Amino acid sequence: MFQDISIDELLDLKNKDEITVIDVRSPSEYKDATIPGSLNIPLFNDEERAEVGTIYKQTSPQAAKERGLEIFSAKLPTFIKEFAQIEGKKAVFCWRGGMRSRTSATVLDLMGIKALRLAGGYRTYRNWIVEKFNHYDLNQKVYVLNGNTGSGKTTILNRLREKGYPALDLEGMANHRGSIFGQIGLEPHNQKTFDALLFQDLERFQSSPYILIEGESKRIGKVLLPDFLVEKKEQGIQLFIDMPIEERITHILEDYQPWIHKEECIDAFNRIKRRIHTPIAKQIEEDLEAENFHAAVRLLLEFYYDPLYERSANQYPEDRKVTLKVKNVDEAVEAVLDQVGVKQKQS
Question: Which residues cross the membrane (predicted)?
Answer without folding.
Answer: none
